[in-house]
């Protein structure tokens, strides 16, 4: 199989040569010579041919991977090898496995910079450096450019930010080699005819079965652009000790926070479709006469009853921290004593609710609003992620105040893998994500 990275490297070398011709003419304050023009035109044709070839190879490899998927349950199937690529985590509500950068994209390409701090220092300096040469010509780069963050540093940023994220460590993450990624799935929302429109039939001797065509659907992930901005005085850039480390840390945390919020609450318009806005979300009704800004034991039981049984071992609770007082006062009467429903743990922000882990976060609505308490199996949430991160610097905005603006850009998408809640053979609809209706 042809390595797409080798084709991209070959394309990058041709782009560098084309840029060198343009730079030479610009520095000499002249137009290109006839020989330079001829060579530049030839390079353009080669670059276009390589771009087309990269696109074909990318699509072909995606098709081959998708054909190999074993769609043998009502739940979405992760990418091949996903389970084996996981890394064990701790037990305080964190994910048992994490799809790391190396597992999705292979070993990062070795950087020309000796360490991450050197890369950030060079970008902050604003001086020319040949190691920052590749900008918008990189395959699939944002149209407005930026310096391509070295693979090693991008891997570190994406993996480090995941430590503080809720969704991505638990979701099914698909690497994206182009602007879109298509994932096949069974249309399995209606179980009145059993699985994916297929129906089992008991056959007698010499009897014939009726032909039934299974229903499939296609999930399309589009790489939306997420930009994170930071501003700093030029004195801090020049004199601040550890500025590069601070900028790196701030960008890493901001990217992770913004991704997490979008995967939970995104509208789907130019951004991921978050869990709380997805079509498969089930909203259970509040109790008759229930007071505003409360959570009752009955609410929790209703939520659990609507969770698909196959999600029971993976589902967790996600709640706003304003719900903690309501949960602490909740108990289940057993004979003459009361057993707590919510059990806090020594870990800050973690505990269990009905025996399943609970995480508290500011990224969901506050007490009383729909989404203040969420029961969810994130393995049924699909994320598409591009490997590139871009970093750019501008002094234009802060010219009068002597400040510099920094921008980090990555591209990603996310959405639930179900088109709708499942209608079971008997009983109420079921899903992998459940909330309580508004009680404000």
Structural class: alpha+beta
How large, in whole angstroms, is the Cα Rg? 26 Å
Number of helices, counting only DSSP H or I runs of 4 residues or more? 9
Instruction: Give the N-to-C terminal Cα separation.
Output: 57 Å
**What's the rounded overall pLDDT mean?**
76
Helix content: 25-40%
Q: Which shape, going by the Cα principal axes?
A: flat
SSE string, helix = H, strand = E? HHHHEHEEEEHHEHEHEEEEEEEEE
How many beta-strand segments?
16
In the sheet with the most strands, the strands line up as: 6-16-13-7-12-11-10
The largest sheet is:
7 strands, mixed
**Domains, number:** 2
Low-confidence stretches: 68-75, 80-97, 134-144
Range of strand content = 15-25%
Explain the overall architecture.
Helices cover 29% and strands 21% of the residues. The protein is built from 9 helices and 16 strands. The chain has 2 domains: 68 residues, Methane Monooxygenase Hydroxylase, Chain G, domain 1, CATH 1.20.58; 353 residues, no CATH class. It has 440 residues and is α+β, with helices and mostly antiparallel strands. The protein has a 7-stranded mixed beta sheet with strand order 6-16-13-7-12-11-10. Strands 1, 2, 5, 14 and 15 form a 5-stranded mixed beta sheet that branches. Strands 3-4 form a two-stranded antiparallel ribbon. Helix 1 packs antiparallel against helix 2. It is flat, with a radius of gyration of 26 Å.
């Amino acid at each position: 199989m042809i390595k797409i990275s080798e084709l991209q490297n070959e394309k990058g070398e041709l782009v560098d040569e084309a840029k060198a011709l343009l730079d030479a003419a610009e520095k000499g304050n002249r137009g290109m010579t006839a020989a330079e023009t001829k060579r530049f035109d030839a390079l353009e044709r080669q670059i276009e041919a390589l771009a087309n070839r990269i696109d074909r190879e990318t699509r072909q490899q995606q098709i081959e991977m998708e054909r190999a998927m074993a769609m043998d349950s009502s739940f979405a199937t992760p990418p091949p090898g996903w389970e084996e690529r996981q890394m064990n985590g701790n037990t305080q509500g964190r994910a048992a496995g994490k799809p790391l950068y190396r597992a999705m994209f292979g070993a990062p390409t070795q950087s020309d910079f000796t360490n991450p701090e050197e890369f950030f220092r060079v970008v902050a300096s604003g001086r020319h450096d040949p190691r920052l040469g590749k900008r918008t010509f990189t395959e699939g780069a944002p149209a407005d450019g930026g310096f391509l963050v070295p693979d090693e540093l991008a891997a570190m940023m994406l993996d480090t930010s995941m430590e503080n994220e809720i969704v991505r460590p638990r979701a099914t993450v698909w690497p994206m080699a182009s602007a879109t990624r298509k994932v096949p799935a069974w249309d399995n929302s209606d179980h009145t005819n059993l699985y994916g429109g297929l129906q089992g039939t008991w056959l007698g001797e010499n009897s014939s079965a009726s032909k039934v065509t299974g229903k499939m659907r296609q999930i399309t992930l589009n790489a939306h652009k997420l930009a994170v901005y930071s501003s700093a005085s030029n004195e801090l850039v020049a004199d601040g000790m550890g500025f590069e480390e601070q900028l790196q840390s701030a960008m890493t945390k901001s990217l992770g926070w913004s991704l997490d919020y979008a995967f939970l609450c995104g509208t789907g318009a130019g951004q991921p479709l978050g869990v709380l806005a997805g079509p498969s979300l089930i909203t259970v009704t509040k109790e008759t006469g229930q007071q505003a800004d409360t959570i009752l034991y009955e609410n929790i039981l209703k939520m659990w009853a609507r969770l698909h049984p196959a999600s029971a071992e993976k589902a967790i609770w996600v709640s706003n921290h304003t719900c903690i007082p309501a949960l602490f006062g909740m108990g289940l009467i057993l004979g003459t004593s009361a057993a707590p429903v919510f059990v806090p743990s020594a870990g800050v922000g973690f505990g269990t609710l009905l025996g399943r882990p609970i995480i508290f976060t500011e990224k969901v609505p506050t007490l009383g609003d729909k989404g203040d308490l969420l029961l969810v199996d994130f393995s049924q949430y699909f994320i598409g992620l591009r490997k590139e991160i871009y970093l750019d610097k501008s002094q234009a905005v802060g010219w009068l105040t002597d400040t510099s603006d920094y921008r980090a850009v990555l591209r990603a998408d996310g959405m639930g893998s179900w088109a709708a809640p499942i209608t079971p053979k008997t009983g109420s609809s079921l899903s992998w994500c459940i909330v309580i209706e508004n009680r404000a």
